[in-house]
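Appendix B. One record, verbatim.
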Amino acid sequence: MRTVGTDVRLRVAQVPEPCVHWANRDADFVREVLDLVGDKWSVLLLGTLTSGPLRYSDLIAAVPAISQRMLTLTLKQLQRAGFVERTSHPEVPPRVEYTLTELGSSLLSAVLALGTWSTEHQARIRGNQVAFDAVESQEAEKPE
């Protein structure tokens, strides 16, 4: 669990843009939210829940390669932040469903915008990566 109030801005020599727009307490919180959203499982779960309420077993089947442990931990983090709601239905056998909240839906739209940006710039980014790797490979092969 992340410690609150780590005062991120005081730990860097010079605050880069856009962090100068936030007070110290806000910058720490922004970092906390970005850590949660930056997790690949969070984004996949939020995206999966756009289709409507799903049971735990449906989520584990829908999200490739996620373990039960990571699904449970990520769902709890998303619930804690208010992005996902857990509803337990008093039935036999018990039925629990997870739903994207309004807040989670608004977050997902921001994440999807980043995804759109990524696909629009994919060729350029891949080209940069290939060029960088080629230079790194040549440098590693040079005798010292």
